[in-house]
Write a structure and sequence with these properties.
Elements (H helix, E strand, L loop, with lengths): L3 H13 L9 E4 L5 E3 L2 H8 L4 E7 L2 E6 L4 E5 L5 E5 L9 E6 L4 E5 L6 E5 L3 H4 L13 H8 L6 H6 L9 H11 L12 H20 L43 E5 L2 E5 L19
Parallel strand pairs: 2-9
Antiparallel strand pairs: 1-7, 3-4, 4-5, 5-9, 6-8, 7-8, 10-11
The protein binds a DNA duplex (14 and 14 nucleotides) through helix 6.
DNA sequence: AGAGCTGTTACCAA
DNA sequence: TTTGGTAACAGCTC
């Protein structure tokens, strides 16, 4: 379920585990469909003996650069997670892939098994179509506005499109639109430069704030996002996501839930107008 | 017990 | 090009 802030948190956790510089001594695959490419046999054979040179993030992908120039990519999809495991501990119910290091194992767990891994020579084949990183300085307001006008699409759908912008999912799309005061159904090519600026600023603020909270954990069931075994605390900061019927923190009106593009969409019908007209009444600033 | 929901994405049809 | 439906899979909530 991880979006950009959760994946960023996972990368930091993996680095703090001390994996950078360590050799992958063994590879065990318990659910073959997790390995997208190459074949499982080749994946295991070619990954064994490689040393992890760095661990970074691109969109919602975890990028482990290896010392031989190849890359181990992981996408957690809905319920994927990494956990350190003492060596010789038994296989867990949702363990899908297990990497053995000299002093510990790293287990990829995934109850729904939607997540995927790739071992590739170049990033292009998997990451090539991804849109810009939200924090890329080259993504100026002007560029963002231009990109918005390249599509005639509802803002909510466009923000979920990883080829438009890399890293947003359902939570942060809704939160960013609220923060920007824009209706989820607003057409992307109708935004004024000032509105595009507000949206980009909101996206960066919402993501940055969540990263500083260690990401968003919802509930405590299996597959829920955690960091170092602990829940991220950003759920406390959510303004609209999963707050259907509750009072808007800005104007007090009830938050509404609709379905757009098959995804639950939460917004304040009073603060997020379709027309972009100024909001009447007593409200707090965004 | 059963129906409907879920943080993601790929694919197909219209 | 865009939206909508379905699918992968399993757990959670009501």
């Amino acid at each position: 379920m991880p979006e950009l802030p959760e994946v960023e948190t996972v990368c930091r956790d993996l680095r703090s585990l001390g994996l950078v510089g360590k050799c992958i001594e063994s590879v065990r695959i318990f659910r073959e469909r997790i390995v997208s490419a190459p074949s499982c046999a080749t994946f295991s054979a070619n990954l064994t003996g490689a040393v992890i040179a760095s661990i970074t993030r691109r969109g919602k992908f975890i990028v482990m650069a290896l010392d031989d120039g190849r890359f181990l990519l992981t996408h957690l999809r809905m319920t994927g997670s990494f956990s350190p495991r003492l060596k010789d501990t038994p296989e867990g119910l949702y363990d899908r892939v297990r990497l053995g290091f000299h002093d510990l194992d790293l287990v990829y767990q995934d109850p729904r098994a939607f997540g995927r891994m790739w071992l590739v020579q170049s990033l292009e084949s998997v990451l090539g179509k991804l849109g810009p990183e939200p924090f890329d300085p080259a993504l100026t307001t002007r560029v963002f506005h231009t990109r918005l006008h390249m599509h005639h699409k509802m803002l909510k759908s466009l923000l979920l499109d990883q080829e438009f912008l890399a890293g947003l999912g359902n939570i942060y799309s809704d939160e960013s639109l609220f923060e920007a005061g824009l209706h989820p159904k607003r057409e992307s090519d109708s935004l004024l430069p000032e509105e595009a600026d507000r949206l980009l600023t909101a996206i960066r603020m919402v993501l940055d704030s969540s990263i500083s909270q260690g990401g968003t954990s919802l509930g405590d069931g299996v597959g829920n996002f955690t960091s170092n075994g602990h829940a991220g605390t950003n759920s406390m900061q959510l303004r609209v996501y999963q707050r259907t019927g509750q009072a808007c923190v800005r104007c007090g009106q009830p938050i509404e839930r609709i379905v757009l593009g098959q995804r639950g969409t939460h917004f304040c019908p009073h603060c997020q107008t379709l027309t972009g007209e100024p909001i009447a009444g007593q409200v707090r600033p965004f």
